[in-house]
Structures are given as C-alpha cells and as structure tokens.
Amino acid sequence: MQATATAGKPHIEVENLEVFFGTVPAVRGVSFNVMAGEQLTLLGPSGCGKTTTLRAIAGLEKPSSGEIRIDGAPVYSSARNVNVPAEKRGLSMVFQSYAIWPHMTVFENVAYGLKVRRVGAAEIKEKVDQALGMVQMRAFADRRASQLSGGQQQRVALARAFVFRPSVLLFDEPLSNLDAKLRADMRIELRELQHRLGITSLYVTHDLEEALAMSDRIVVMRDGLIEQTGTPDEIYGLPRSAFVADFVGSANLVRGKHRPDLSKDGMVALETTSGQVMYGMPHGRPIHDELVMSVRTVHFQLSPNRPGASLNVWPVMVEKTVFQGDFSQVHIDWGGTRLIARCAAMEPVEAGAALFMMVEPRRVVLLAPDAASESSA
Amino acid sequence: MTTAVAPAGSSFSAQKLAGYGVAAIAAALVLYPVFYLLQAAFDTGDPLVRPPTAYGLDNFANLFNYPQILLNTLTVSFAATAMALIIGFVMAWTLARTNVPGRRVFEQLMAVPYSLTPLLGALAWSMLGQPESGFINQVWRALGGSDHLININTPYGIAWVMALFEGSVAFVMIAAVMKSMDPSLEEASQVMGASRLRTALRITLPLVVPGILGAAIFVFAEMLGSFAVALVLGLPNRYYVVTTAIYQLVQQYPPRIQLAAAMGVSLFAVMFVMLFLYRRIVTSGSYVTITGKAFRPRVADVGRLRYVLFGVCVLYLLAAVALPVATLLFASVQKIAVAFPAADNFTLANFSTAMSMNAARSALANSLLLGFGTATIGVVLMGLLAWLIYRSRLPGSGLIEYIVMFPKAVPRLIFAFGMMWAWLVFPLPIYGTLWLLLIAYLTVFMPLGVRTISGVMLQIDKSLEECAQMCGASWAFRTRTVTVPLLWPGLIAAWLLLFIASVRELGASILLMGAHSKVITPAIVESYFATASELTATLALIQTLVIALAMIPLVLFTRRLGAHAGD
Predict the structure, then answer these.
(1) Domain region containing A292
(2) Is the CATH number of domain B66-347 1.10.3720.10?
(3) Distance (Å, rounded) from C-alpha A119 to C-alpha A127?
(4) pTM to 2 decimals?
(5) In terms of CA atoms, which chain A residue is nearest residue B7?
(6) Which ipTM value was assigned to this complex?
(7) Which of A287, B95, B261, B304 has its CA 20 to 30 Å from the CA of residue A220?
(8) A226: closest CA among A240, A206, A212?
(9) With contacts defined as CB-CB under 8 Å, which chain B residues touch A11?
C-alpha cells in the first residue's frame, strides 16, 4: 500500500500559505508537511483558519500567496502562477454536513467518484460493495439519503470519499454533527479505517479529545497562525505557549520573575509577586526575565502531611471544591494566587482545609510567547 | 497520482466562459435599451434624425406644460394606495390576529386576486360600472334609481380597481410584518399589568408601523407605474396618467418620442427613489424585519365581531374575484351583454368566433409560442445567472446582480419603449417580429426568473457541489449530475412562472408587437376598444383558462417545495 511504499516522505507540503477573504486575512503564512500515510490534525478554535487551510489544500479556496505541493508537484503556487482545480488534485474529502446527494441512492452516492473516472459497471458494483461493507452500510445500498440517520450518512460520506482510492483524504470536522456517544464510537472506527487503508489524511477539528485520540501529529492553530506542531503527547505534555496550554485541556498559568540565582540542575526558578517560588523545565525555550509556566490541573498533588520532596512543595488553603462527577475541582489559595487542582472524587477535601500541595518540577513547563501575540506586537 | 500543472488563468475555462458569456448577454439586454431611453430623453435635436444632433434638458422642462397628467397620476395613485392599504391592513389583521372563521381558507384565497391580473379586473369592472351600460347601473335603474349608481370611468373608479388587486400585495406585506413580531413582546406588556388597549397602542402599533410604512411606499411605487387599469378605464374619457400618457405619445401620429422618454425617465427616477426608501425602511430602523423568522402570532378572540370580519373578507373576495369572473363568464355567453338574463340572448357563438377569428387565434398561438420560448430559454439563461451571482464567486458578480435586478424598478412599458428605440436601429431585422418580444420578455422577467431559481439554489448546501468536485467531477459533469437535478423543482417553478408572466404580459407587448406578430393580452385590449365586450370577455376568459392550467402544477409544486415563488 501507499503508506509503506512512500513512508517517511512528505505527501503534502504547505509553504507560507496565506488566504484572504477580501481584505480580511484568514490564514497568515502557514507551513507544515503531512507525511505519507500519516494522520495529521489541524486543531484550533473556530475562526483560527484551520478549515480555510484545509479548503485551500482541497482547491475549494483560492489562496493569495504561498505554495502547496502534493507528491512534490505544486498544485498551487503564487510564484509559479499554478492553481490546479480541485477536481484534478486527486484528493478526496468528507464534509462537515456530509453532503450526501439527496437525489441519489446510497449506491449512486458512493459510485459517483468511480463513474467520474469511467470505471466499468461491474467494477463499480464490486468496489462500491466492498466500500459499503467496510463502513457496515451494505444493507442500505438502495436507500435514499433522506431515509438515513446522521451516523449512517456519515458512513456513506466516508465510503464515497475513499472508494476511488484517492491518495489523500481530507476531513472537515466530520464528527461535529453527531451526538457525543456516536462521536466517540466513530472516532475509533475512523482511526482503524485509516490504518487499514494506509491513506494519508488531514483532519480538521476543534475538539481536543478527538485530536488527541485520532492523530499521529497535531497542528494547533490560532488567528491564522500555527501555535505548535507535535505529537499528541507533546501537545498535551509540552505546550509551547499559554494559548496551547489553555486550549489543549485545562492548565494553570503561573507568571513571575526569573530567579537565575535559585535555578539549578537544568531547572528554571520563577518567583511570583507574592514571593512563591516554583521550579520548572525550560525545554530549550528562551528564558526571559518575565516567565510564564504551565501546570496541568491533574499534576498537582494534595496531602494533609508534608511530602518528602524538597522542591515545589507549599502549604496552601482550600478555597472551595466543585464536584464534577468523576473528579472534583479544587480551588487553591497559593499565597494569594488562585490555582486549580483536579482530585479524584474518592478523596474529598473540605473548603477551608490547610493542606500541602506538590508538583514534580518535570510537570512544570516553561512557555514561549504566543505566536499570534508575537506577530501582532 | 497525477497532478497536472495548469496555469491559474486557464484552469476554470469552461466555467469562466459560460459565466462571463451569460453576464455579457444579461448586461447587454438590460443596458442597451436603457441607453437609448436616456438618449431619447436628452435628445433636443430634430426628432427625425438619429443619432441625436443636440442634447439638453428641454424635454424635461417641457413636462411642466402638462400639469394635468401629473395631477391625474397623483390623484389615482394616492387614492389607490390608501384603499389598497386599508384593504391590506384590515385583511392582514383579521386573518393574522383574530379568530375569524375560515382563516386558513381565506389566507389561501388571498393569492387569487393578484394572479387574476388587473387587466381582467378592469375589463370586468368596466362592464359592471360604466355609467350607461354597466350591469350595476342597469340594475339600479330597474330598481327605480335614476342616472347611475357608480361610474367606473373616473379617477376613483380607476383607483378602486387598482386597489382591489394591489390590496392582496399590501396584505402579503403587512401580514408578514404581523407574523414576524414576537408575541412575547405583547405578553411581556400584559404581564407588567398593561391593559389590552394599552398594549395595542404602546407595543403593537409602534412595532408594525415601520413595516406598514414600507408597504405603503412599495404599493405607491407600483401604482405610479401601473398601466392596464388606467388604459382600459381612463382612455374612453381621455383621462391620462403618466403611463397611459407615455403610451399615447408614442402611439399617436406624429409620435412625440422625446417627450415620452423624458416622462419615462422621470417616472423611473421617482420609482427608483421610492424603492430605495422602501429598502431602507425594511432593512434598517425598524425593529421588526420582514425577513426574520415567523412566529405564531397571538390570536385575539373578537367575539361577535368575528362574523362582521367574516363578512368583510367575503365582500373583498367577491369584489376582487367572484364578481369580475362571474361578469366575464356571463358576458361571454350572451349575444349582447346586458344585466338581465333572457333565454334568447344566450349563445356559445362568442367562443367559436374567438377561436375562428384569425387575429385572436394567431395572437393566442403567438403568446403560447412566446410563453414556451421565454420560459425555456429563460430558465437556462436565468439559471446560469443565478449560479453566477450566488455561487460562482467570479469577480464582479455583485455588479451583475444589480444589472439583472434593474428591470424590476422600471415599469415594463418604459423598458419596452427604450427597447423599441434601441432595436429599431439594430442591424438585425427583428423589429416588429416575435423575436423582439422574446428578447423583451427575457429582459423584463429576468428578476423574476433569477429570484425564483436563486431562492431554491440558496437552500442547497454548497458542499453538495463541492463534494462532487472533490470526487473529481468537472464543472460540466457536476452541473449535469448534481446541480441541475437538485435545482429541478426550482427550475420547473421558474419555467411555469415565466410562462404565465409571458402569456399575460401587456405593458411591453403593447408597444413592441408588430402588425403580424400580435399577442393575446394587447389583442384583448384592442378588442375591447374596437369590438364588442362579449368577445373581449370571451378572449379574457380563454387567456385566464390557459394561465390557470399552468398555475395548477405551479401551486402543487411550490406547496411541496415550501418555497415562495415570487410574483
């Protein structure tokens, strides 16, 4: 399959892509590669330019500058004045609205891409049958779109997108119209299908869990710029900026001055205005006088007794706790600064209790400034 | 996989070619006649020499020598607008806000007056209300009255017939305003302790006033440009409003083209300002917008009054629909049209005469032919235009929308006048042929067709087309397999609407048809002025029947679509 044949080579290359809607910039100079067989996700809040980037790669949106290459050949290049129409880029796409044609049956919908490619009737029958089998929709071949549920339409849209063996599959928030339960199931199914087909796929979502669960790599976008690119582990564990830390799951942002005199063993020391000192890891990021560090709410540990560790241990007060089902959210008064810790609901803590709070320095991540605020400054 | 490298300029060639080709045709159809209309209006040289030898404002200055026409136009338009608004408001309030019996049925029937056409109403009311021979006056004298009870050949008679038909337009607009008002606004007032009267005066009225004002301006602009009723009821007494005056100036010998053009341009300018005001009022300033979502208005229990209101509704539909149709039916089966039936006066000869009379038969055949032609060519042209304006994202599509919608703001008579003047000098010999009428219909009905098709087009999710593109389908292939099949109901609705509009067109046809290319509506008017009213009634009925036959599938279709079909 394709994945093994060309593994490790960039399949899609995006270079300095810019897209304007009139005079409004939607994408402001974005570069990334999608490797062959890889599943890459563009993640970000609405309006961050992720869908526009995907549509520009598809050929549905005309960029204003930059270059897009597929298998090394430019399909869009402002410098070389190249713009290959969408239908000739050899890609395929699953739309947010599913876009199932209501005037055709399920079979006709799936067969469309093959008919366009002038495949013989017998082969169409065989391939459509196979594709519908892969999404467990074989029994619905003669139904019309109006007789399908949302989840079924989703499966048909998927079968239609891969039946003609495109080299790349693009997904534009394909699960956002499904209910939460079905979304979780489809996530797993999509991931498995992508592995079986070995197809390169580019996926757009604003749903963090979806991105973490489905991707080989994630590109976090904001205001038309890339904030961070990395594996799901890196994005979650080593957020590059305050925006990523905050958007990708819940994080505490701690601000303060750099204390080079206290820093040791490769760790950076930060002192807040109220005099609290916290040690964290710099991960090669620039160390300025003013620092911001990120701590995930799950990484704080609370205990009634002083723990054995010597660094990052503080006596704190519990302001209040909010019960949220599987866990409780604990609001901590950390020397005048409010921090949030997440505790298993099994071990309740009382408001007003005096406790010790600890966090391992390797869980404290030094952040770089946001890409968006940097570019506008 | 293959990634053909194509230069950006040629990548959408078929699409661009079709797009710009169609845009160029539309722009030429609209702008070419407008240019000649303006040229004639500012031409102060020798009227027999073209192109003009001198330009100036003399023609407009000359308009002040005809104050009577202005006065007549304003009298009729104001009177008709006032009556139409009263009809529209009472009907809208009754049907939207009271528990009058049979509301649903009445609401459906309110569409009928407009589709009957004002011309039909004018012909029927002429037979009913002429001072001497009018049926109503015959009955009046038989009952012992003297002279006449009503005289339809007066400014107020003209205004009455216009108001009967425009009243249904006012109804639609005012009812929309009433339905778009959130009933919780009134409920909030009552919860705060305000009485029903106080709520009506302080909450309801201020909320609907902008909408009613908008309707008033729109209706007034329509009245200024209306033609058929003033022609049928005003011409016998030489009572001219601006549209009939233009018609007269063009038709008389020698024609006074320059004066007529100046009149047309002035009327058009006034209407343009009014429609601009209307849009301003509807889109801004008012709290209740007509385009907003529809609420279920609160229905007030009006007690015994509901039977009075029921009577009002019945009376309106009687005057606007039942009485005119019955009058024409009655007249069409009589040898000499009189109010009182007599056994030896009945005949079916009028129908065989109408069908055997060469002029009438060829006029009907021409109209049907033109209807088919206009509808068929129009659907393709206007479908492409709708796609170009709302879907293609080709540069300049906003400008094309303005040009395409432009004929909506110009009375068809005046547009036809510009066209007559334009195509006279055109190198192709189409003047006086059906081809000119076809071109005229395609031009003046462009807004109707584009709006109908785009209404359906905008309901189709754009990703349905994009998905076909992502499956690798070329523009031509996906248009054929996805866009057109999805658009099919809209295209059929547009076809039927264009057909109906063509078959009953008067304002443009009456100026542009040649001696050997007559069409049915002007032929009916000619018959009214030249021959007996029985034959006229017969012709009008035959035309109505043809339109009704086309209307049935349209109503069934649009009801299933749930899409509003426009006028």
Answers:
(1) 242-376
(2) yes
(3) 10
(4) 0.80
(5) A82
(6) 0.81
(7) A287
(8) A240
(9) none
